[in-house]
Design a protein that fits this description.
GO molecular function, one term: phosphorelay sensor kinase activity
Number of helices: 17
Distance between the termini: 139 Å
Helix content: 40-55%
Largest sheet: 6 strands, antiparallel
Strand order of the largest sheet: 2-1-6-5-4-3
Strand content: 15-25%
Oligomer: single chain
Protein name: Response regulator
Keywords: Kinase, Phosphoprotein, Transferase
Shape: elongated
GO biological process, one term: regulation of DNA-templated transcription
Length: 579
């Protein structure tokens, strides 16, 4: 029996029933409205189900967002809807909308979005209705200090208790409650503020939409990660090889092709054990992986396509699926050829450094006593130059001492060259033992020199912390007609040079206590510009850079020990002539 027939019969029965009739009619009215609500809800659910099926087949995220908003309008809950996609920091990723005019859509795109701090205000518990958040006007304006969203499209009088500036947000949450966006709706069809019951269908659909959005985002993240990993593997400078559970190669990257000489197509499907040069290393790696699940920084050799054994440093891991089943292995290997070459060069450099340090020490320790020998012999030879012939034997022996001292001097010079990696050769002794040849290509020539006649008694200050060198050099120069004094350290030579009568020349070693040769040179040059300075050194190189810095400031003469005293005399005369 139809509802209209039932109503007609009841009207006849209750025609004279009075109050009872009114009660029954009111009950029937409520029943009719409830049936209408159920029918509307059923229609909305059918629309949602159809939309759900359509959403599942739509791959474009932007299209999905607009479709979700369109469905909300189609089920006649609200006339306008906006979805805002958010990142993990509540920054806006994009929008979807339906029911907006072109101008409103453009205004939405160009509007200043809510900041993360402002957006968090939406989810204040005092605004909560069901799983949604309703912010009534004027609270909405006070909360944000400006208009937010799109104003209602109908005059205020068209609504029951909804205001055009009211705000309603439904959070879109993915797995584990992760917020992926918000759904903002406006212009309710019934003109009323939301209630828990009125929001149930909307929240149900929003929950389904959030799941789709989260899945879509996850899919995009997985695709991005996959592309990143593929790019990382393809462009890695290291060998990357993966195998299946049977040890067959399933991944062979570009670096593996370049280093080992195989094309990936040649080795895919072959057993990875074929790439090892040493079977015992292959078996060791398999055993460690089986027992420990990984191996790190294991040095072995890989066999290239050409047959060359290439040293590599291997790290590998066992791979399992989500159920814990063994599915294969992956390994990363570094080509060690360049590293081993650099290591060999470093060892050579370290040996060279040690040799250089030894050369400096030997040169310094040998040259100073050599200077003493040469100076003493020169003085003795000079004093004997006018004696009778019966002293020829003494002169001969002194000549031998001088010659051998010069020979040692040449050896230290070549030892310094050896330490710096230049100017040496290797010879064989008895055809077996190799040794460095310290002999020179030709002997140094030392002229005996002549006694000079000075126009006046020039004042010369000699400074050296080696007593023998200092005293012998002073004695020689005194016999040559110079007025000589000595100093034992940097402070004393500066003090003597800058006090009393001016000095013509200061001859000083570069390595003395209290001041370096450069410090001595600089102070004398500044305070006594008329005094010439000559620097001496027994080092094969300039450890304090005194010579380099002094030459940059105008130093003209440097003497390298060992030298004959006459060389000092000649250099003194040279700088005096320049003055």
């Amino acid at each position: 029996m139809r509802y209209e027939e039932l109503r007609e019969k009841l009207d006849q029965v209750l025609a004279d029933a009075g109050p009872l009739r009114r009660t029954v009619l009111e009950t029937l009215g409520r029943l009719r409205r409830r049936i209408g609500d159920y029918r509307q809800a059923a229609a909305r659910l059918r629309t949602l189900l159809r939309a759900s099926a359509q959403l599942q087949t739509t791959e474009d995220l932007s299209e999905r967002l607009h479709l979700i908003c369109r469905v909300i309008i189609d089920i006649r809950t609200y006339r306008r809807a906006v979805i805002t996609l958010l990142d993990d920091e509540m920054g806006v990723l994009g929008y979807g909308h339906a029911g907006l005019t072109e101008d409103e859509a453009l205004a939405l795109e160009n509007a200043k979005p809510l900041s993360p701090v402002e957006r968090r205000k939406i989810f204040d518990e005092r605004f909560r209705v069901g799983a949604s958040y309703f912010i009534p006007f004027p609270e909405s304006e006070k909360l944000f200090g400006r208009d937010v969203g799109i104003a209602g499209s109908l005059p205020e009088g068209e609504y029951v208790n909804w205001h055009p500036r009211d705000l309603l947000f439904v959070p879109l949450r993915g797995p584990r409650g992760r917020l992926v966006g918000t759904l903002s709706v406006d212009d309710p069809f019934d003109g009323r503020r939301p209630s828990r019951d009125s929001l149930k269908v909307l929240e149900l659909f929003a929950n389904m939409a959030a799941g789709l959005i989260a899945a879509d985002r996850l899919q995009a993240e997985l695709a991005s990660t996959s592309r990143y990993l593929q790019n990382l593997i393809a462009n890695s400078a290291d060998i990357i090889v993966a195998t299946d559970s049977h040890g067959r190669i399933v991944l062979f990257n570009h670096a593996a092709e370049e280093i080992l000489g195989y094309a990936a197509a040649e080795v895919l499907g072959r057993h990875a054990g074929e790439l090892y040069a040493k079977p015992e290393d292959r078996d060791h790696i398999k055993r460690v992986l089986r027992e420990q699940g990984s191996i790190a920084d294991f040095q072995t050799n890989a066999r290239a396509r050409s047959g060359e054994e290439i040293p590599i440093l291997l790290s590998a891991n066992v791979l399992y699926d989500s159920d814990g089943r063994f599915i294969g292995t992956e390994g990363i290997s570094k080509d060690l050829r360049e590293y081993l070459l650099l290591e060999a060069r470093l060892i050579v450099a370290e040996k060279q450094k040690t040799l250089a340090e030894a050369a400096v020490g030997v040169t310094h320790e040998v040259n100073n006593p050599l200077e003493s020998i040469i100076s003493a012999c020169s003085l003795a030879e000079r004093s004997l130059s006018s004696k009778p012939r019966d002293l020829d034997l003494v002169r001969e022996k002194l000549g031998i001492a001088l010659r051998e001292a010069r020979r040692i001097s040449g050896i230290t010079a070549r030892f310094t060259e050896l330490a710096h990696g230049t100017g040496y050769r290797v010879t064989e002794v008895d055809g077996e033992v190799a040794m460095v040849d310290f002999t020179g290509d030709e002997e140094r020539a030392y002229a005996a020199g002549e006694v000079c006649v000075l126009p006046r008694r020039y004042r010369v200050l000699v400074a050296d912390d080696e007593p023998t060198i200092r005293l012998l050099l002073a004695e020689y120069l005194t016999k040559e007609g110079f007025a000589v004094e000595t100093a034992v350290d940097g402070d004393e030579v500066v003090r003597k040079a800058t006090q009393g009568p001016p000095w013509d020349v200061v001859v000083t070693d570069i390595m003395m206590p209290k001041k370096t040769g450069y410090e001595v040179y600089s102070e004398i040059r500044e305070r006594c510009p008329g005094t010439a300075v000559i620097l001496m050194t027994g080092f094969g190189y300039d450890p304090t850079h005194s010579l380099l810095k002094a030459r940059g400031d105008g130093l003209k003469v440097v003497l390298f020990k060992p030298f004959e005293p006459r060389v000092v005399r000649d250099k003194i005369l040279e700088v005096l002539r320049d003055k």
